[in-house]
Design a protein that fits this description.
Layout: H1 5-13, E1 17-21, H2 27-38, E2 41-47, H3 54-63, E3 67-71, H4 77-91, E4 96-99, E5 105-106, H5 114-142, E6 145-150, H6 164-184, E7 189-196, E8 208-209, H7 221-236, H8 241-253, E9 260-263, H9 265-276, H10 279-291
Helix pairs in contact: 2-3, 2-8, 4-5, 5-6
The structure holds NADP nicotinamide-adenine-dinucleotide phosphate (NAP).
């Protein structure tokens, strides 16, 4: 079937667009939900714990923007289907899904349990797959939609030791996105990636560390110490989550969005290094940048 995606997008521009954002309680999700609502998207700012919604609701009400809060835990089948079903019931459509929920599991592979590793994938990968799966029937029937997956520059390149499972979960999200694009293109559903570098949010505070890690006895204690020191220059140069929100809004508004968007000087610098260096040279540069606390902004 021939689908004129630009015509469909133009028609949609004339009607109220419905956006769903996961993990809107803080950071990137919080700013993205507000920005979409400020730009006429009826926005469902979802979060797993509604007790964290006060500030967002207060801001939305003060600005009189179309933002609603809804409970959605990306790890939970029932929570996802309840949320998406009720949004579809209310509006009959979903135009934009932002899969943003994620956290960082920190620890050496040797010291992490399989349960902890599965927990990392449950949120960062299966969570996105679960919510995406639940919006596809609606987007397919309406013949349009965009799914925006918040990955990381760490989904393109392994950067940080003892962060292996975070990197792996984001690499999985990247492969998922690239492949899903092929399967949804005939239904005029776009699937794209956002790849931020370091962003100022609650991300660092929300890091979960391997339960078996013992700083007094771990063979990785020296590496762990260096990693925490390596985070310092990264966080010092971190970008505002509003920048990520703006990139997401631009992608949602575009009639022909890119497949990937990087956000932040560090992310751009890392990609440039990747394009210019061999695999071995890149690995050496990454290791020196991080472990010698130089940061990833290449001079
Ligand atoms: N900050 C960075 O440097 C950075 C860089 C690259 C990519 N990213 C990615 O950006 C995304 C957002 O992170 P952020 O920087 O905004 O960090 P953040 O401030 O820590 O926000 C993470 C959000 O994920 C939510 N969340 C965790 N598990 C969830 C679940 N099972 N269901 C629903 N929500 C869940 C948290 O909810 P609670 O409030 O309930 O805990 C919180 O709202 C993540 O996917 C992250 O990997 C971040």
């Amino acid at each position: 079937m021939y689908v004129n995606r630009y015509k469909i997008r133009d028609n949609i521009l004339n009607m109220t667009k419905i956006a769903v954002v996961t993990a809107s309680s803080s950071g990137i999700g919080y700013e993205t939900s507000l920005l979409l609502a400020r730009n006429q998207y009826t926005t469902y700012a979802s979060m797993r714990n509604l007790k964290k919604s006060d500030e967002l609701l207060k801001t939305a009400s003060k600005e009189n923007i179309p933002l609603k809060v809804i409970q959605l835990d990306v790890n939970d089948d029932r929570s996802v289907s309840n949320a998406i079903d009720s949004i579809v019931k209310e509006n009959g459509r979903i135009d934009v899904l932002v899969n943003n929920a994620g956290f960082d599991l920190f620890g050496s592979l040797e010291e992490l349990t399989i349960e902890e590793i599965k927990g990392q994938f449950e949120t960062n990968f299966f969570g996105a797959a679960r919510v995406t799966k639940s919006v596809i029937p609606t987007m397919r029937k309406q013949g349009s939609g965009i799914i925006i997956n918040v990955s990381s520059i760490g989904g393109r390149i392994g950067l940080v030791p003892c962060n292996t499972m975070y990197h792996a979960s984001k690499f999985a999200l990247e492969g998922f996105t690239e492949s899903l694009r092929h399967e949804l293109t005939e239904f005029n559903i776009d699937v794209i990636l956002i790849e931020p570098g370091a962003i100022r949010s609650n991300f660092a505070e929300n890091i979960r560390t391997a339960k078996n890690y013992d700083s007094n006895n771990s063979p990785y204690a020296k590496t762990v110490q260096k990693v925490f020191e390596g985070f310092e220059p990264m966080l010092a140069n971190a970008s505002d989550p509003k920048e990520v929100a703006q990139v997401i809004l631009n992608a949602a508004n575009s009639s022909s969005p890119n497949i990937r968007y990087t956000v932040g000087k560090d992310a751009e610098s890392i990609l440039k290094a990747r394009a210019e260096l061999s695999d071995r040279e890149l690995e050496k540069w990454v290791r020196e940048s991080f472990m010698d606390k130089k940061g990833f902004i290449r001079q």
